[in-house]
TrEMBL record:
Listed SUPFAM superfamilies: Restriction endonuclease-like
Swiss-Prot/TrEMBL keywords: Coiled coil, Endonuclease, Hydrolase, Membrane, Nuclease, Transmembrane, Transmembrane helix
Transmembrane segments: 56-82, 94-114
Pfam families, per database record: Mrr_cat (PF04471)
Domain Restriction endonuclease type IV Mrr: 208-317
GO MF annotations, alphabetized: endonuclease activity; hydrolase activity
Positions in coiled-coil regions: 150-183
Entry protein name: Restriction endonuclease
Amino acid sequence: MSTRCKNCVKTTELKYKYGKNNNSTIEAFSLEFCDDCFVTIYSNNLFKEMTSGNNLFRVLMFSLFGALIIAMAIILILYGIIIVNFELLNPSYLLTSLFFLFFGIWLVSIRFLLINVTKFRTNIKVRKKLSEINDLTKLIIQEKEIADRKKQEQIKKERERTEREKQEQIWREQQRQEQLRREQDRQERIRKAREKEYKIKNCGIEEIDKMDGIDFEKRLENLFVVLDYKVTVTPKSGDQGVDLILKKDSKKIAVQAKRYKGKVGNSAVQEILAGRTYYDCSEGWVVTTSYFTESAKNLASKVKIKLIDREELIKLLIQQQEKRA
């Protein structure tokens, strides 16, 4: 909105003022002249108004001519009175003429001083008006900058609040998804536990717990047949600790069945180790309805004997059940 000065063609600065009916409304405007030209031109215009429209040069000329005319008129009057009428050359005539001449000059000086005082007053008045405009502009700019900063801070706070709400919403959604996942996992664990419980209940382990050793051997024979093993039952006497011999592919496995309530110890591992050698088997297994001692586990690990405890037996029974299904 800035324009160029009509006098010196400089770019004028943008000014601000409050609206007429509302101080919260700010209006921008530009003066017709730059600050220097504004002071000069409007001082001259104000001077013309204060001197009835005459400019400075005309006022000075009129004052000068007026004073000289008055002085010459006085001189001529004295000249006519003293020289012409009385035909005398009075020395006081010269002094009187000089007096009035200097008096006229004094009048001119006084008039010139008054003119300069008037000119100075107009200049001060215009500069004061310009200073008020500039001060108001600076004040409005400061207020505008403060308002802009507050607005930017408000926008920043609003963005931060929006971002926090967004992050909180994302966090809540993540928590909801996590809770849903946990609930699904819990339901899945419950389902699997119930399924496992159902399979265990129906796999026959409870019936096996009621069997004696001979029935348990027959149950294992049936189990391994279903699992695609060729099963041979060893004689009841002189079996060398081996109850079943399994064959599958190139494997020959010696199996000892232990229908125990307590934990199975080292002796079972030692017996199947001997039986594996006796029947020329590649592997040796000990199957029990119970569990093994730590000593038996350590020995079996050392001599490469596979131990099938209650948990592993249940898995085999479930496989049998699924295969039959």
